[in-house]
Structures are given as C-alpha cells and as structure tokens.
Amino acid sequence: DIPLTVGKPVLVEEHGSLRQIELNPDPGSLVPWQVECMAAAMLGQDRRLYRNLIQSGSCDLSYELGDRARFRVNVFGQKGSLAVVMRKLPASVPTLSSLGLPKIFSDMAGETFGLVLVTGATGSGKSTSLAALVEAVNASRPVHILTLEDPVEFVHHHQKGLVNQRELGRDFDAFASGLRAALRQAPKVILVGEIRDRETMSIALEASETGHLVLGTLHTSDAAQTINRIIGMFEHSEERLIRGRLAESLKYVVSQRLVPQAGGGRVAALEILKNTIRTRELIHNGEDAENSFAQILEQSATYGMQTFDIHLAYLFEHNVIEEQMAMLHGSDKSKLGQMIDRIKSERGEKVTDIDNLELDLDYEKRSH
What we know:
Layout: E1 2-4, E2 11-14, E3 17-20, H1 32-43, H2 47-56, E4 58-65, E5 69-78, E6 81-89, H3 104-109, E7 114-120, H4 126-140, E8 144-149, E9 162-167, H5 175-182, E10 189-192, H6 198-209, E11 213-218, H7 223-232, H8 239-249, E12 250-260, E13 266-274, H9 277-285, H10 293-299, H11 308-317, H12 323-329, H13 333-347, H14 363-367
C-alpha cells in the first residue's frame, strides 16, 4: 500500500508496517495541493468519480502505469483536504498453487452451481483468493465467466474459459442491477465483488438455484457469522424460507485472516465450512448449546473443514508463524493454547514457566 496524506512524506506499507521511501527529488512532507494534484491525475476526466467523491466523501478506481504496474486506489476527504491510498496489484493473476491454498479449493472451482463465499475484513486477501478460484475455472473449463468488481483488480486472459470483467460505475451502476443483468448474459460462473445488501443476496441465491456457480464476498469474521449475517438481511417472516434456500444453495464458506509470518511477509489463516448433511441441518434449525458451526468445523477434518484455531496451530507447528501471532489471531484462545502446548510438548519444549516444583512431605506435620 502507498498512502498519500497531508503532513507526512510518501510512505509505503509493506507486510503491515509503514516505512518512508527515498524519492529523488524528495518532496518532504506533503501539502494539500500536492495530494490534490496526484488525486486529480488518477481521477482523470471521469465525472462519476468526482461525483462519488463529492457526494459520499470517497471513490474507488483502478489506475495503470502502462505495462509497469496496476493499482487499486481509494481517494477520500480528511480534515478538509484529500488523501489517497494506492494498493499495488500483482502483475500476474495468482493461482491456487502459488498462494498455497488447500486442495479443497480445487473442489470449489469444480462446482457447477451453488454459492461459494469468501469472507473476512478489508485487506484480508479475499479478492486474491477469489481471483485464484476464477483462474482455476478459467484454466480448466470451457465456460463463460462474468465478474462484477469494484474496481477490476486482476485482469484475466481468456484460456479454456471466456472471461468478461465488468467494473462498478463504468459498466454497471449497482451490484444488484449488474447481477440481475448477468442472468441474461449466459454465464456459467458469476463473481460478485461484494454482496452488500438483501437485494444482491436474494439475486445471488436465485442465480445459484438456477444452475450458476456464484462466487462472492462478505465482510464477516467467520463462517457462523456469515450464515447469521445472510439470514439477518431478510425479514423475520422470511427466515424459514431463507434458511431453506441457503441450506440448498450454499456450497462453501471460506473466512480469511492475514497473519505475519515468522520470516517476514504474511500468510492467510483460513476457516473452511463445507455444506454437508450436518451443515444443512444446522442452517435449517439454527445453532444451540449442543450443535454449533464450530463443532462441525472441529469434527469434520475428513471433509476438508477447519477452524481458524486448527489452521493457526498447523502454521505454528510448521514454523510458518510464531506462537504470539497465532494466539493474537485465534478465535478460542483457550483451545488454541492447548493445541500449541501439545505441539511444544511433542517437540520437547517447555509449556510453562513454573520450574523446580517439589513435593512438601512435611506439610501435614506442620499443619497440625
């Protein structure tokens, strides 16, 4: 990321930490007109972007430097001036293998219909994982793939598949209307950059029910919250119907968190929920004290499912991340701590700081 803001020099965020970069000539701390000029150069003559900036206070766009680099850009107002955040996009489209994603992602790419959701906070790598899924379909199946994005981040080239990429604001006006139009554009696979509201979710469910594979994102922290968020988008009177539709349409939920690696860089910790008979029953009936999504995830490793804590423990065991980072990003820190202690015991490492314990044989005598 390259943040440009008034009162600070040009910085770059690499692996989660900001640092200053050397420029020649060095502009020093940026002043308002410098940031405004840089923002204007990227906004160009696009009136829609200026309208969004004025009306909502921010706008999203993609920016290219010829064949050298592509950026996802957000321009926004702060304290009476403009600020810009540029995120450099990889020159090549990632693949499942280059990202080191589990084999179950290949199963997702092989689905012919249904709903696959990738969730997580902003900046957790959702777009990158979805791009790899689209590329896997593109490389292996002769089908029409249609993407709805805000903005287009990874440019897919036609392989076995045919890929049409549409950008919010430039090619369609809202995700709901773009998705409704997609049903008349004969795709077999539809990527929805973000499912933000009830209308978009309703059309996504309809598309998945009518023979389309729908890939989408939600800003939710884990699989259970994802299910509950979807159901919460609809009226209480519709809950039973939506639970039934979701139980039939949903194929997978993947939740992501980026964790700093031991040797630098970051790695994605994944929670993966697959729709099995147990999962469908739980979506239909809801969670209770005896049945929860967490229990299904913990007990269904044979189906490729895992909790965040299971994956974090795996990453710690293989020396990808340190114990402190694992605990910081865990969901159930008690269970995760037990898993890490078990790993450390198998390695012959200490699991407690308490040393030199001795049995006091004279304690009973003294107590009398």
